[in-house]
Amino acid sequence: MPEYRDAAYGGETVTLQNQSMRLDLHRRLTGWGWGELSLRDGDGNHRFFAVIEHMGEALLSGYDHPLRLESEEYQLNGPKEIRFPVKLNLESSRQKGEPPLVGETVLSLKGDGGPLTFRLSVAPEGGIHLRYLRGPWLRVGADSFGADRFDAIFPGVEWLVGDEWSSGTDWFEHPEALRVAPHPHKVAIPVMAMSYDGTGIGLSWNPHQSCRSFTLRLRSPQPVFASPNFVDRRNHHLMGLMWPSARWGLGENALEGEPPLKVHGGTRLELDGEISTVAGTSLDVVTDFVRRRGLPDPGKPRYEFGEALRRIARAYNDNLWIEGKGWGIRGQGSPHVPDFLRACLELVDDAELTRGLNSKIRWAGKQPAGEQELDLGHLSFSKYGPEKSREISERLLGMQRGDGAFPFDPEGIHRTSLLDRAALWRPLGHAGETAIDLCARAAGALIIAGQVLGDERSLEGARRALDFSTVFTRPDGGDWWETPLRSPNLLAAGNAAIAYYLGYRQFADERYLNRARYWIRSLLPFTHLWEPLDLPMLYNTKPCFNSTSWFLSDWTAKHVQWEVLTVFSRSDSLGIVWEEVDPEIDWATYQRGITTAVLRWMIDHNDARWMSRSEFSREDTGSGAWDTMFCDTFDPVEGTYGGAPIMPREVARNILITVRRGSNRGGD
Questions:
Q1: Range of the domain at 250
Q2: How far, rounded to the nearest angstrom, does the alpha carbon of residue 441 sit from its chain's CA centroid?
Q3: Are 494 and 500 in contact (CB under 8 A)?
Q4: What is the number of domains present in the chain?
């Protein structure tokens, strides 16, 4: 008998099954039907996990409630595919007559334990006014484990742990908090994931599928995500796909079109999705999706890497040089010689440029170095001499808690003006709390200092911090100076990966190697692994899933590239090659991707097309004074670049790394 209590069983069932899942499709009293999905657990048993609510559902103007697409019959094509001719069932409606929507739903299950494919294709018999069409509509945990959950990930939008709610105000205030049906361009990877008791489930889709006629142009299906299911106020989780989308025809976070869309007869409306399962967490679901699909080719860069290096070198010799002060803009310069500049010169075949930069480097070398104050809040895995290494070690060990953690100190080393501003509304974090980023930075610094000093006490402090940090499953705390401390963060993922790999090299502990792989894979949910056909954003990254100081920038609505570039330049400086550490993921292509992406962000006042996407004033960019700097932010909905201009140091570093490793396919 069926497990789901919200469907009246019509007495018939047909089953599809492979090594990882079983789908029982049931007939309602009014026709086929709904599906119950059971996933194989670690003991080889099937556990009832999710409900496929319907073969499709539509809400049309003129009808008094939503109507399901149902079927009187089915066609079984071998043991792994079943087809249902569907039509809009009017039996529960006061309106009678011919069904206004007809089509087909196809469910197929790969025999090798692969995902379940759901394909809905319908067309109106005449003109209709469509408020929504729902396709794959998963109720995870319904009539089984309910709202329990280990974690959930909606890439680019949510990463939930424990009893957190999606669209909650943990890391946002309204209206930014609502993210149940975000603009599709804000979704980094077309997959939604949730896990419970060691099993993960994902719903993925083709973000490029579209519906077109001479009056209708729908692009990018609308994902819907509610964990727990606050949409229906029910004790389970919701993952689904629908038309229209916030890309066209739907207000962001609305669940029906207002006004409704006029759809002419013969227009084909389609919704495709895949349901997958893995042993593990939501991150394992996302990683499995990436492994199955492969990382996308970053494509041809805006400038070939050699040309980009030449542009940066020329800028450091020209518009980014302030006579008598050094490198910078707006009259603020530094005589500190960028570490990439000499390596750049070795690759640039330009005698005049080389003479000019060498002259500037010689001048900078004669300037007083100045004593840089030690900033324990922003430790960056740098190597220092014995004196400073001793200072770092002693101060960190003095801060470390008895359990090995490093606490948040908002009145001390972690104090910033944005934290003070946020506290006028509510604190971003409380004294004594901790996060993986705080512990990882400190552990890495202690390992490096301990190696310089030959100091076992420093190394033991690092080991205790790494052992404590195994309690963390989500990367938190990387932008503590402006965002909520315990919120999802890309920089924290990278810092944790680096720290654990340093720990593995120092202590030869396989647990640390596994954690390093886990944390580097935690970059994936922040990374755009698809892009619209009309707006380049492949390999752009979200910095975090939160807001700055509660009421400033909403970072699910912005991309930021400097953080991910920093992770890979830091890794390289420490001799970490992620494609060797974690060969299951093509990290060489990933790094080439983020480097190719940032070239789109570089300011070029001679590029009219780029300038049309700039949020900067012509007064700042029109003269070329900011050329080759890259923007702090990209808006994936408006397609514009803005924020503050950033010196291109990290761009050059990552180009040099990519070129050195032979990843510039087709470059010069």
A1: 9-292
A2: 22
A3: no
A4: 3
